[in-house]
Design goal:
Layout lengths: L1 H21 L1 H5 L14 H21 L6 H13 L1 H27 L5 H10 L6 H30 L2 H11 L3 H30 L3 H11 L5 H28 L4 H12 L2 H39 L10 E2 L7 E2 L23 H30 L1
Antiparallel strand pairs: 1-2
Helix pairs in contact: 3-4, 3-5, 4-5, 5-7, 6-7, 7-8, 7-9, 8-9, 9-10, 9-11, 10-11, 11-12, 11-13, 12-13
Pfam families: ALF
Protein name: ALF repeat-containing protein
Organism: Streptomyces erythrochromogenes
Length: 386
């Protein structure tokens, strides 16, 4: 009997640990629920809420991206509101379609300020069936490479047409990085241009005689003008002030001028700025020449009239007049005072109450008598000698 009891006790002691370990009550602890009241397994049920939360976070990140359009944001918020299945569909399908459209719109907007190289690249990317990756690469990489090519071309053009400061700064940008070229075109070119503009304004002031423009240039340079103000003065204001100086100069030129000069000057004042420049350059000299030609012709006519007055009316220095007395003799000769009519009567008298015809007749009679007496004396001397 003793041996049988001992064997049973040993067997029970050996099996007890295995039974206790396998018992639910042991595995759960002393405060575990009784058998039949265990909760259902939770791991499979918790996987769906965890995935939905992750999808929600993913969608929020997508619509917060700077590239996200309003359409993308609206679609993402709607998917979150519609639940787990809508969120999963948005992530796997919808967001990619919308993203393609967003890149297309963004790339098309690049063409507004694009140079030739970038425009050609934009046209090329839309020629085939572009994928999302192709569009993304063009927007994030290729467009910057093409833009830099256009920047190099633009900088080279500015170097060719700019002043010394622009040339120096432009060459330095060409040797630098794409960021250096972008900075030059954005700000550097204007600072360099301002330096060249100051030099140009000083040169204009030295070569211009008009007071209005010179005074404005001096006032501008002695102040603190911005590059934009300097450029506007050179491109716009200086031409307006030049025209004002030209108008003042024309008014001074035509004051007291000849008829042609006054006429041409007034026409220029009523015309365009180009008309006034042309008058000062050539028009005034042409008008002066016309006035001088008219003056020379008038002087010639005046001299001719004076010469005519000196020779007397109806005579040219070669006309001859004839006179006939009432005596037995006849005489002919030049006269500058009277001329005979067709009937031999005198046309004028001289002296107060003296008849010139009688004077001429008496003189003729005396002349004949004297000649007769001289002839008779000669004959008497000849007879005496014989």
């Amino acid at each position: 009997m003793k041996l049988s009891r001992i064997a049973a006790a040993v067997t029970t002691a050996a099996l007890a640990p295995a039974v206790l370990i396998a018992s639910p009550a042991f595995a759960a602890g002393s405060d575990a629920p009784a058998a039949g009241n265990q909760p259902a397994p939770t791991t499979p049920d918790q996987s769906v809420p965890d995935q939905a939360e992750e999808d929600r976070k993913t969608i929020l990140a997508i619509i917060a991206h700077p590239m996200a359009s309003e359409y993308m944001k609206e679609a993402g918020r709607k998917a979150i509101a519609d639940g787990p299945q809508a969120m999963r569909k948005f992530i796997e399908v919808d967001q990619h379609k919308i993203r393609i459209d967003d890149y297309r719109v963004a790339i098309m907007r690049l063409s507004h300020d694009a140079g030739p190289a970038l425009k050609a690249g934009i046209e090329k990317v839309f020629q085939g069936g572009e994928t999302l990756e192709q569009l993304r690469h063009f927007y994030e990489v290729t467009q910057h490479e093409l833009r830099d090519e256009d920047n190099k071309v633009e900088i080279s053009r500015l170097i060719g047409t700019g002043g010394s400061a622009v040339k120096e700064a432009g060459k330095k940008a060409l040797q630098g990085t794409p960021a250096d070229r972008t900075a030059f075109l954005k700000t550097g070119r204007y600072l360099a241009q301002a330096s060249d503009d100051r030099v140009e304004l000083s040169r204009i002031d030295e070569g211009w005689d008009g007071p209005i423009l010179s005074e404005a240039i001096s006032k501008l340079l002695n102040g603190s003008p911005t590059p934009a103000e300097l450029r506007h003065f050179l491109e716009v204001t200086q031409h307006e002030l030049r025209d004002q100086d030209n108008s003042v100069a024309i008014a001074q030129i035509i004051h007291g001028g000849g008829p042609e000069l006054v006429k041409a000057g007034r026409a220029a004042l009523k015309g365009t700025p180009a008309d006034r420049v042309e008058f000062l350059k050539t028009g005034q000299h042409e008008a002066r020449a016309k006035d001088q030609a008219a003056k020379d012709q008038a002087d010639k006519e005046k001299d001719k009239a004076k010469d005519k007055d000196k020779t007397g009316p109806g005579q040219d220095g070669k006309d001859q007049g004839q006179g006939q007395g009432n005596g037995s003799g006849q005489g002919s000769g030049n006269t500058a005072v009277t001329a005979q009519g067709g009937n031999g009567a005198p046309l004028a008298t001289t002296g107060a109450g003296v008849n010139t015809t009688l004077m001429a007749g008496g003189a003729g009679t005396a002349l004949v008598a004297g000649a007769g007496l001289l002839l008779a004396a000669r004959m008497r001397r000849a007879g005496a000698k014989g």
